[in-house]
Amino acid sequence: MQFSISERIGTILRSAFIMIPLVIVCYGTLDACCNETVEIRSVKIRIMDKSTGLPLEGIPVYYALQTYWPERLFYILKNPEGNNVTVYKAMEEYISDSQGEVMIPSRKIALNRWKSEKIYDENIYINVENRLQFSKKEYNIESLASVLLYGKKYFVNPIPEYKGYKIRSTTYEMNPKDYGGTKFEIADALWNGYGLLKKRQETFVVELERWDSQENTSHK
C-alpha cells in the first residue's frame, strides 16, 4: 500500500504529538527524582560603627541565595546561546540586635542534577534598600542585585548617616579588580570567593563607615 505525501506528513505529525508529551512526562519524572541535598554554612555578622567601635543596633540586613542551571530547549536540548536559568532558593530579612549582630542559620537546599543545577551565589546587603519599596519583599531583595551599579539613583541607606555594604560569596575565586573594586557610591563590597564551599560558620565584622571614612570591613 502506498501513501501520499500528505498522508505521510500527517502520520509524522501525529507521532510527534504523541511523543512530545511522553518526553515531557519522562523529563518531569527525572526532574523530580534527581535531587541532591547540599548544606550551606551559617553566617554571623557583627556590625559596628567604624569611628567609635560601638555595635550598631537596628541595621537592616537582606539575604539572598541563588542557584542556576543551563537553559534547555524543549526540556531536553541545551540552549546553544549558553543562557542560564537562575532561581532564588532563599530571600530573608534581618535586623541587627543590641550587640550589632545578625545570625543567618545554615540551611539545606536541593539541587537538581538532571538539570545540572549548581549554586550560583549568596548576597548579603547591609543598610541598603530600594527607593521604590515594592509591596513584596522578594522584589525588594531581588532589586538589590543592582545596588552597586545604580547607587543613589535607585537605592538609599535606611540609616542615612552610614554607608551600606554588600558581601557576595561564591564557589570560585573572586578578584575585586574584576568586579569594579570594593568602594562604590552607596555601598562598599566584599568579594568572598570560595565562601560557599566552606563547611563551618563564617564570621564577618563589618565596620560601617560614616561618609568620610575609608576602610570598613575585616573578615575571619
Topology record:
Blueprint: H1 5-33, E1 35-40, E2 43-49, E3 60-70, E4 72-73, E5 77-78, E6 84-95, E7 101-104, E8 107-112, E9 118-126, E10 129-130, H2 137-143, H3 147-150, E11 155-156, E12 164-169, E13 187-192, E14 202-208, E15 217-219
Parallel strand pairs: 2-14, 12-13
Antiparallel strand pairs: 1-8, 2-7, 3-6, 3-9, 4-5, 9-12, 10-11, 14-15
Supply database-style keywords:
five-stranded mixed sheet, 15 strands, disordered C terminus, alpha+beta, four-stranded mixed sheet, about 220 residues, globular
Structure described in brief:
The protein has three helices and 15 strands.
Q: What Rg do the Cα atoms give?
A: 23 Å
**Count of helical segments?**
3
The pLDDT mean sits at 84
Strand element count: 15
The largest beta-sheet arranges its strands as 6-3-9-12-13
| Major sheet attributes | 5 strands, mixed
Kindly report the oligomeric state of this protein.
single chain
Q: Structural class, please? A: alpha+beta
Tell me the strand percentage band: 35-45%
Amount of helix: 10-25%
Using the alpha-carbon principal axes, give the shape: globular
Question: Topology as H/E string?
Answer: HEEEEEEEEEEHHEEEEE
First and last CA, distance: 79 Å
Low-confidence residue ranges? 213-219
Q: What can you tell me about this protein's structure?
A:
The protein is α+β, with helices and mostly antiparallel strands. The chain contains 3 helices and 15 strands. The protein has helices at 5-33, 137-143, 147-150, and strands spanning 35-40, 43-49, 60-70, 72-73, 77-78, 84-95, 101-104, 107-112, 118-126, 129-130, 155-156, 164-169, 187-192, 202-208, 217-219. The strands form 5 sheets. Strands 6-3-9-12-13 form a 5-stranded mixed beta sheet, with helices on one face. The protein has a 4-stranded mixed beta sheet with strand order 7-2-14-15, with no helix packed on it. Strands 1-8 form a two-stranded antiparallel ribbon. A hairpin with an 8-residue loop joins strand 14 (202-208) and strand 15 (217-219). It is globular.
